[in-house]
Amino acid sequence: MGLDEGILNIELSSDDDYTTEPVLDEYTFKMAAALRQAKIASPAKSKTVQCACGMLVVKSNCILPDGTPTNSLAVHYLAHHRSKISLEELEKISRLKLVYNPEEEPPLTQKVLTPRKR
Ligand SMILES: [Zn+2]
To answer: Which superkingdom, per the lineage (predicted)?
Structure first.
């Protein structure tokens, strides 16, 4: 069973802090692996939005393999908006059951960190 309330379904306001240098740790890597296994819930509802950091990003609702809802910006939030992410959200990522091998995961490129529409 997944978490009904989802992971990282958060709203940032435009004055929120962000870091240009991505935070790349176990949370970022695990969430990236989770998103690779996720399904886009309703592709027609994907939309380009301007994130609090000013980047144009594609936001889609996603469903993780265990049924937990999240969104395509989860990795971007972890990498560039870490100070706005509560411990509770990080704990949800820790508890997330996910089968993946960190050593076989592709590297986190900017495209993964900042999903941007071409
Ligand atoms: Zn951002």
So the answer is: Bacteria
> What number of residues does the chain have?
118
Q: Give the Å distance between the CA of 54 and the centre of ligand 1.
A: 7
pLDDT tens for the chain, residues 1 to 118: 566 789 999 988 877 789 999 999 999 999 999 999 999 998 898 999 999 998 889 999 999 999 999 999 999 999 999 999 999 999 999 999 999 898 888 888 888 888 765 4
CA of 38 to the centre of ligand 1 (A): 21
pTM of the model: 0.90
Domain ranges in the chain are 1-99
CB 65 within 8 A of CB 38: yes
Q: Which residues surround ligand 1, an ion (CB under 5 A)?
A: 51, 53
What tokens were used for 17?
């802090």
